[in-house]
Amino acid sequence: MKSADTRNLPLPPGGADAAQVMMNYVSDRSAALILSPPMAEHPFIGSATAVMIGDHLLLATAGHNLEGITDASQIRIMPRGEFPHPGLPLVARSSPVDKPDVGWIELAPGPALASSLRFLQLIDLKCEVRHDPAVPFQVQGFPAAEVTAVAGRVEPFSLNLITSSVEGHPDRLVLEYPPQSSADRGLALVHPRGMSGGGVWEVPRFDSSPVWTPDHAHMVAIVQSVAAERHSLFTEPIEEWLRLVATDFPSLCESIRAVHGA
Questions:
Q1: Which of 7, 132, 207, 251 has its C-alpha lying 20 to 30 A from 20's C-alpha?
Q2: What's the whole-number average pLDDT of the chain?
Q3: pLDDT at position 2, please?
Q4: pTM score > 0.70 for this model?
Q5: H-helix segments, 57-210
Q6: Which CATH class is domain 2-27+123-239?
Q7: In the chain, where do the E strands start and end?
Q8: What class does CATH assign to 30-121+240-253?
Q9: DSSP letter at 120?
Q10: Which positions ≥6 away from 207 have C-beta within 8 Å?
Q11: Same topology for domains 2-27+123-239 and 30-121+240-253, yes or no?
Q12: pLDDT of residue 247
């Protein structure tokens, strides 16, 4: 797996190491999706984040990634975007016909737990996060423009990006893409197509403390779409994904409600 990140944060001694630790933590809980619906001319790329709820090993992703998929064999799941990898087997999947644009994939537990993929817990998700000018956010995914084809196989490229939110969207979190700060303006980034379904995370301010622990990492949203002319990346709030999971797995409702009250 190749990886890259961009960040313009004033970091104290040790802060750069802490930022890299978080990026590794996020990557360990991310998966590239190689999607081959029967009507598509060629495979396309999606992104997902691993979440364990009860005994269910799930991938949180964008619902449109699963459109047109008619069989499990049409989804190849590569933990951390590892290349080569035969793909993790799945046992079920779901996405709503209409909005919100969220979906889940359930993994077979044996192979998933034996893989390099790591899983978030409910406590690692944070609901109702919206624009906050003081909070940076990290986006992780696998942009299709950077996929490398080798002997008929594809090698995803993992992108970690730290950016800011955009005001004026009370119903969801919208992020700058590319970042529009004075330090970042003009930064050339690949088109985010393929990052759909990837996780969005709150980032602790490493300028105030270089110490990082996993309880600083909270996934808050799922990448949904891009408006290039507005330099904006739209997301679906993680609470929408939790509502879908609670609907599809009634036995998990109590666990979800106990942590998030939803």
A1: 132
A2: 83
A3: 37
A4: yes
A5: 109-114
A6: mainly beta
A7: 2-6, 30-35, 44-53, 56-61, 75-79, 90-94, 103-107, 137-141, 148-150, 153-155, 157-163, 174-176, 199-202, 218-227, 232-237
A8: mainly beta
A9: B
A10: 9, 10, 11, 12, 15
A11: yes
A12: 95
Residues in the chain, overall count:
262
Between CA 95 and CA 49 the distance in angstroms is: 15
Question: Domain extents for the chain?
Answer: 2-27+123-239, 30-121+240-253
Tell me what percent of the residues of the chain surpass a pLDDT of 90. 48
Separation between Cα atoms, residue 167 and residue 180, nearest integer Å: 13
- Do the strands 2-6 and 157-163 form a parallel or antiparallel pair, or are they unpaired? parallel
Tokens 């690692």 belong to 124
Position 49 pLDDT exceeds 90: yes
For the chain, the maximum distance between any two Cα atoms, rounded to a whole number of angstroms, is 52
Q: Which of 74, 77, 85 is nearest to 61 (CA)?
A: 77
Q: 253: which 2 tokens?
A: 């409702």
User: Pseudo-torsion of CA 203, 49, 57, 87, nearest 10°?
Assistant: -140
Q: What are phi and psi of 72, to 5 degrees?
A: -60, -25
Q: Minimal CA–CA distance to 247: which of 119, 87, 64, 100?
A: 100
Query: 44-64 burial string, b = 16+ CB within 10 Å, else e?
Result: bbbbbbbbbbeebbbbbbbbb
Residue 258's contacts (CB-CB under 8 Å, 6 or more residues apart) are: none
In 3D, which of 151, 175, 154, 166 has the Cα closest to residue 83?
154
Adjacent-strand bridge partners of 148: 155
CA distances from 177 to 130, 187, 204, 219, 262 (A): 16, 10, 20, 18, 30
- The Cα–Cα gap between 112 and 119 comes to 10
- Residue linked to tokens 């992108």: 159
